[in-house]
């Protein structure tokens, strides 16, 4: 019978003992060994947990592919060479025992085992390997171009014009960065691998959904981030720990459902959540760009993302005129013809240097 008040052995001693038993039972397991093992387990409550940790580690190591084992071998050799160049005290406890690991464990298993020590704790190199991406690729579009992409996990992306995406898929998570442009994400559901999209100072996390995200850092007056959900739900948070200025109480994290959208400025400060119609989620997919009371200069910058407009605004007052409307970015002539009808302006000069000036 064990004494629950007995002082627990040190973690190092427990790991050493547990590994010794793990290796011994792997080599030989008869009635006598089992009896001794059970007696050891009964000696202290912490021993069962220590032994279970080695079992869990081993099961994970056993799943490593040959490429992973080779990478671990190289990592161990590099770290061992570095350690050999530094004078260190004689290893004790778990670390000392691990140096004799190959003498205790079958050679087929030794090939997969690499144990690294960091400070007072320890971790398996397989964890480092597991954090390496299994798929990395960058995608981009030129002005006037759109691109459909299917990722290895089944997720589908659609990039709008002048857009850059950086994709990295890991074994336990999926990550996309949107440095510039806008895209629609149709994320394949996988509760064990969250899908994160980072743009500017904003991070969106989903499991399975369809949403659009815009981050046009190069567009004056529209250099923040906008997220609109078409299906499912997403969590939108300030990725860089942005805080609201005095007097502003906007949430640092919001959850959007279908038919909702939110915008954040370049610092990650979010505006109130608002509604969005299905047709308003990424209308560029259907060849439309929509302006809702935006400055003329900003509207021109948006058109420039799709192609050369040949239009310039030099008068700040003209550039500040507000406009609303839906246009086809591929039909610039329609926009040029509409300008004098919807704003007090006129076109002066010939393309490609046509200036928009005040009508008076």
Question: Quick recap of the structure?
Answer:
The chain has 360 residues and is α+β, with helices and mostly antiparallel strands. It has 10 helices and 20 strands.
> Which sequence of SSEs, written as H and E, runs from N to C?
HHHHHHEEHEEEEEEEEEEEEEEHEHEHEE
Number of strands: 20
Distance between the termini: 99 Å
General shape: elongated
Q: Mean pLDDT across all residues, rounded?
A: 78
CATH architecture of the largest domain: Sandwich
How helix-rich are the residues, as a percent range? 25-40%
Assign the CATH topology of the largest domain. Jelly Rolls
Unreliable runs, pLDDT <50, ≥5 residues? 1-6, 90-124, 241-249
C-alpha-based Rg, rounded: 30 Å
The biggest sheet amounts to: 13 strands, mixed
* Structural class assignment: alpha+beta
Strand content: 25-35%
Helix tally? 10
């Amino acid at each position: 019978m064990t004494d629950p008040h007995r002082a627990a052995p040190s973690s190092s001693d427990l790991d050493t003992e547990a590994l010794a038993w793990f290796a011994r039972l792997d080599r030989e397991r008869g009635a006598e060994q089992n009896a001794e093992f059970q007696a050891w387990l009964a000696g202290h409550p912490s021993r069962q947990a220590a032994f279970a940790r080695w079992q869990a580690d081993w099961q994970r190591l056993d799943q490593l592919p040959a490429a992973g084992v080779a990478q671990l071998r190289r990592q161990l050799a590099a770290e061992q060479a570095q350690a050999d160049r530094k004078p260190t005290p004689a290893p004790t406890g778990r670390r000392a025992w691990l140096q004799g690991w190959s003498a205790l464990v079958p050679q087929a298993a030794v090939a997969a085992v690499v144990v690294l020590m960091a400070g007072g704790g320890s971790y398996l190199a397989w964890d480092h390997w597991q954090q390496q991406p299994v798929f990395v690729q960058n995608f981009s579009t030129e002005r006037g171009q759109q691109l459909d992409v299917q990722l290895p996990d089944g997720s589908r992306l659609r990039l709008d014009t002048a857009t850059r995406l950086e994709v990295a898929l890991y074994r336990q998570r999926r990550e996309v960065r949107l440095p510039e442009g806008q895209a629609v994400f149709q994320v394949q559901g996988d509760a064990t691998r969250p899908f994160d999209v980072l743009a500017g100072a904003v991070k969106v996390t989903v499991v399975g959904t369809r949403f659009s995200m815009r981050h046009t850092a190069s567009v004056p007056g529209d250099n923040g981030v906008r997220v609109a959900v078409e299906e499912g739900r997403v969590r939108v948070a300030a990725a860089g720990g942005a805080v609201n200025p005095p007097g502003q109480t906007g949430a640092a994290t919001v959850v959007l459902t279908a038919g909702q959208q939110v915008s954040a400025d370049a610092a990650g400060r979010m505006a109130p959540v608002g509604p969005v119609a299905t047709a308003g989620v990424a209308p560029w997919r259907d060849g439309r760009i929509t302006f809702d009371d935006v400055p003329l200069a900003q509207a021109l910058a948006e058109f420039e993302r799709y192609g050369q407009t040949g239009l310039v605004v030099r008068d700040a007052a003209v550039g500040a005129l507000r406009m609303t409307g839906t246009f086809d970015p591929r039909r610039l002539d329609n926009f040029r013809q509409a300008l004098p009808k919807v704003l007090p302006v006129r076109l002066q000069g010939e393309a490609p240097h046509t200036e928009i000036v005040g009508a008076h």
